[in-house]
């Protein structure tokens, strides 16, 4: 009966309340950091009140959780993660991936269309994604579809994929490493943009292009040396791809033939010429944004140990001077946002005992650590909490068209991370890691600052005090 149901535990949440307040001295809102309280009801933020305006009578009526000095911030929106499900769930999978996300303060994750099997390139393959994710996700999950040669020049194929609910498209300008996800050229991209314009959805691009004329293929060099790998993917690969890509983005300007479409360059590593080209295009009014990832902000080529393929990714991690320039670009606002590019595999394919950088799987495992990594490595540059919220929540939600997310503000989903920036921890064997293969993460062994206390997804406390909610009640985010 009704009263019985009301007293039943909500297994989607560690908290048995639908209506409650959370308080702290540091709430990151679009209008600055306030001391006060956030009221959550029915999964939505219904009020945000400064301490001085918060009357006692409100306080006594409902459940209040006082987080003290801990920071209340919008949950992170990771627009770039590979959960490899269905088909390669031994690499990651929706259950472990979203558990790691929740433990890391990520409340929304947009899954990449490749590394699962099959790739998400049609309504049928999107349906397989939806079935694999349903009832198995702890946080909200949306999907990018793939722009590949097969569908790029076939507008009804693209239209049906977009109609099926992908939040936008992703393409590669170089081989992706996945057979059923071939690369696109600028003609494909131009066609894709003209279709995306009607939907006002973005195209995300892996911008590297193979330049076989000048590079060494590394075969004469030691494959266990990181510098050998670095030489195989020089900055000219990024610069060349970005130059080609930006030759078709003028159509995205206001009044252009692809107005409404948007190009987002994923995981920028080269902070020199490639970034200059992006700044120039933005200056001309092209609808373009760019992300980089925590691993490019945390690591340098110089420090990567011989044979340590945990650090292999593409584009590669470059030298310390480049990392410095990436941070400057973050602080100046020239790089718009961050994403994880969590791209795990099964440990065998990292070839850790061989240490062959040329043959190992390229991809970094970081999903659970992106918030403390951003904070820990950014402190010396003076990163603020507001910047972290902008890079990880506000701008990524906007990119993905998720207008109910990305801020602690009235009417937004109650997607919230509560964390303690000052609390340090060692990412050692004793630290609980929830993604599937902790051993391949290059972040292991680091000391980090910034501990996630609680994560709320639409008002459900999905992670708190080291525990996860027992049921996986995240929502699928399909565009309509
Ligand atoms: N296929 C795939 O995930 N590739 C990713 N890995 C990586 O390091 N960069 C990528 O684009
Ligand atoms: Zn990529
Ligand atoms: Zn990726």
Automatic annotation (TrEMBL):
Gene3D superfamilies reported in the protein's UniProt record: Metal-dependent hydrolases
Cofactor(s) this protein requires: Zn(2+)
Chain's role: Catalyzes the conversion of allantoin (5-ureidohydantoin) to allantoate by hydrolytic cleavage of the five-member hydantoin ring. Catalyzes the first step of the ureide allantoin degradation followed by the sequential activity of AAH, UGLYAH and UAH which allows a complete purine breakdown without the intermediate generation of urea.
Sample GO molecular function, one term: allantoinase activity
Pathway(s) served: Nitrogen metabolism; (S)-allantoin degradation; allantoate from (S)-allantoin: step 1/1
EC number in record: 3.5.2.5
Subunit organization: Homotetramer.
Organism, as annotated: Eruca vesicaria subsp. sativa (Garden rocket)
Protein name: allantoinase
SUPFAM superfamilies listed in its UniProt record: Composite domain of metallo-dependent hydrolases (SSF51338), Metallo-dependent hydrolases (SSF51556)
InterPro entries: Allantoinase, ALN_composite, Amidohydro-rel, DHOase/Allantoinase_Hydrolase, Metal-dep_hydrolase_composite, Metal_Hydrolase
Keywords: Hydrolase, Metal-binding, Signal, Zinc
Catalytic activity: (S)-allantoin + H2O = allantoate + H(+)
Domain Allantoinase composite: 15-70
Record carries keyword Manganese: no
Keyword Zinc: yes
Domain Amidohydrolase-related: 71-462
Family from the record: Belongs to the metallo-dependent hydrolases superfamily. Allantoinase family.
Pfam families: ALN_composite, Amidohydro_1
